[in-house]
Amino acid sequence: MASQLLEVFDVKNNQLLPMLEDLIHRYPQINDPERMDLAKKILNTINQLMEWEESFFCENDDIRAVIPSPLAELHRSQERLSEVVEKMIMVHVDEPDATFLDALKDLHRLLEEHYQVIRGSFIPSLEKTYDPEKLHQLEKQVSQGMMLQKN
């Protein structure tokens, strides 16, 4: 059975990573206002993702009790992403030493690592040890939450 939770993360991954890759690739050719607009959209999407993960997983007492180690790994990954996002907010897109572009590249690497944590340990651990009925309810909530975010 293909996990509905993995499908949700794949949708987010397939939206976010290409946007970031496009910005990194086109960075030298586009002007500062366009860079900033694209970066804001990406950073806002990442912040939404972190909030979404927090509300569905990290704040769930049942999940914390059942898979504390994979949840802690997810949380560490979130913290690394948040640190780069905060750094980027403080840096200007027109920095002459490519600080912002380097931060975009760091962000891309960390996002890929984040999805590996989700795909490689968090979701498999959740599916293996979480109560099947609660997992089904969680999948429904996650799917509904995704629909609300699209609107």
Care to describe what's here?
The structure is a single chain. The protein is mostly helical and 151 residues long. The protein has a single domain (4-150), classed as Four Helix Bundle (Hemerythrin (Met), subunit A). It is 85% helix and 0% strand. It is built from six helices and no strands. The protein has helices at residues 4-26, 32-58, 61-66, 68-90, 99-129, 132-150. It is elongated and about 55 Å long. It starts with a helix and ends with a helix. The mean pLDDT is 86.
State the distance separating the first and last CA atoms. Answer: 28 Å
Computed over alpha carbons, the radius of gyration is 17 Å
The secondary structure category is mainly alpha
CATH class reads Mainly Alpha
Q: Mean pLDDT, rounded to whole units?
A: 86
Which parts are unreliable, with pLDDT below 50 for 5 consecutive residues or more?
none
Q: How is the secondary structure organized here?
A:
Blueprint: H1 4-26, H2 32-58, H3 61-66, H4 68-90, H5 99-129, H6 132-150
Structure characteristics:
single chain, 151 residues, mainly alpha, Four Helix Bundle (Hemerythrin (Met), subunit A), 85% helix, 0% strand, elongated
Gist?
This protein has 151 residues and is mainly α. The protein is built from 6 helices and no strands.
